[in-house]
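Narrative summary of target 7.
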Amino acid sequence: MRKMHRILGLLAAIVTATALSAATIPNGTRISVRNTSSLNSGTAKVGQGWTGSLDQDLVVNGSTVAHKGDPVKGVVSIAVDSGRLKTPGKLGLRVTSVNGTPVHSTSYVVTGKSHMKSNAEKIGGGAAAGALIGALAGGGKGAAIGAGAGGAAGTGVAMYTGKQQAVIGSEALMAFTITSSGTASAQLKKR
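Modeled conformation, tokenized:
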């Protein structure tokens, strides 16, 4: 009798383990993920791995297939370094597995701040300061020369300080939608 109970217990454990490993996450399932480390469009590379954790239990058809805090892995799908005067940085991430289950997901994309306001303030401020100094030193003609020189100096400052990278900070909450389950591929298409 004891032998029969052991065999039944072993069979129940095998069936449960098989059912858990066969759990898939259906297309269209939305997940919330907390990033575990900071990512920056200036240093990230397409294909680079990243890790996070589920922000809430993942329930499929009434069964919990992954718990809050379970590991999530993914790859960087977009990494565009910021220009100095235009083109803010851009960073995109995709999920490749949830608690060891391979998946594909939509991308979570962030873009750095626009350069427009910052550049206008630096260049315009430089031109105004140059015009003021030129006017004090040489009148109307000095103001025109000073405005040009100040604008050029402001452009130099904007170029030196202008990078606007996209950043996804540590502990950032990101939303993804699962697009397919099964064997995930970390290969990315070249554009």
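The chain is about 35% helix and 30% strand.
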